[in-house]
């Protein structure tokens, strides 16, 4: 039962019905410090002491663009048969092989709910705060490779806005502010907490956003694109291989994070 210090008898994986504990865990322990759109969320629980202690969260849901799902899975229905794994985080004290156990149990549950394809991304670009503290070393998707995911290359290269705390201010958050869409208050609060002025009543949201990004010292950083991994879910290898892939499988798996980016 033990493998690399991991004893599966000490752990349980369950759906998390109430969003709040999962959200609080992700905001506290995931390097993005953000919460995505959710279709399903799972918790890894340590039960070794006789109590259920949350020690990992996996979030599956809806990406910003349908193409994130339809490009790798052209024959699956996006948002129902295909989902993106947008957050996957465990406490550092979880033993070896806890990640692969957790991910496998999540996919078993998703398969039972009709999901047939999962996409996830690993961000290989290291991140530092404005003061130079390393907050994210860069990930290449080692756990995804260990679970036999198909590596399908990089997502689109782009320039990202890096905030002084080392987090990325995503284009979608900026769009919510400009258009005053649902969730704009959260995005505005993120900038205000870093020193941006509170928007005045009646001000132009796009103009405020430009001023706020300058005020907090946001940096433009060139990003070569995150590594993309996909899983086809099925009861057998034959069943999995019948799911058509719209992107070619690539080898070898990436091994090293990208060099640290220079602000542009």
Instruction: Write out the strand line-up for the largest beta sheet, numbering strands in chain order.
Output: 3-4-5-6-7-14-10
Number of strands: 14
The helix fraction, in percent, is 25-40%
SSE pattern:
EEEHEEHEHEEEHEEEHHHEEH
Structural class: alpha+beta
Oligomer description: single chain
Largest sheet: 7 strands, mixed
Principal-axis shape equals: globular
Low-pLDDT ranges = none
Mean pLDDT: 94
Number of helical elements: 8
Radius of gyration: 19 Å
Distance linking N and C termini: 51 Å
Query: Beta-strand percentage?
Result: 25-35%
Helix/strand layout:
Elements: E1 2-3, E2 6-7, E3 11-15, H1 19-29, E4 40-46, E5 53-61, H2 67-70, E6 82-90, H3 98-112, E7 117-122, E8 127-128, E9 134-136, H4 142-146, E10 150-154, E11 158-162, E12 168-169, H5 171-179, H6 184-192, H7 205-216, E13 219-223, E14 227-232, H8 237-241
Parallel strand pairs: 6-7
Antiparallel strand pairs: 1-2, 3-4, 4-5, 5-6, 7-14, 8-9, 10-14, 11-12, 11-13
């Amino acid at each position: 039962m033990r493998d690399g210090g991991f004893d599966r008898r000490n752990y349980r994986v369950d759906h998390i019905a109430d969003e709040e504990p999962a959200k609080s865990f992700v905001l506290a322990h995931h390097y993005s410090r953000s919460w995505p759109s959710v279709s399903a969320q799972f918790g890894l629980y340590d039960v070794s002491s006789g109590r259920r202690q949350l020690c990992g969260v996996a979030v599956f849901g809806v990406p910003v663009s349908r193409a994130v799902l339809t490009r790798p899975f052209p024959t699956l229905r996006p948002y129902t048969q295909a989902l993106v794994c947008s957050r996957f985080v465990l406490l550092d004290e979880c033993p070896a092989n806890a990640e692969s156990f957790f991910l496998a149990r999540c996919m078993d549950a998703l398969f039972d709910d009709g999901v047939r394809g999962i996409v996830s991304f690993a961000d290989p670009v290291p991140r530092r705060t404005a003061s130079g503290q390393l907050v994210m070393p860069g990930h290449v998707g080692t756990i995804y490779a260990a679970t036999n995911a198909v590596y399908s290359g990089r997502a689109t290269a782009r320039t990202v806005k890096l905030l002084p705390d080392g987090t990325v201010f995503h284009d979608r958050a900026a769009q919510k502010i400009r258009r005053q869409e649902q969730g704009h208050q959260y995005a505005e609060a993120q900038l205000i907490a870093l020193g941006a002025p509170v928007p005045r009543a009646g001000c132009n949201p796009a103009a405020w956003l430009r001023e706020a990004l300058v005020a907090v010292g946001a940096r433009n950083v060139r990003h070569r694109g995150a590594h993309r991994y996909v899983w086809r879910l099925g009861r057998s290898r034959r069943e999995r291989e019948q799911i058509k892939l719209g992107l070619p499988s690539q080898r070898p798996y990436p091994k090293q994070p990208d060099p640290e980016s220079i602000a542009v």
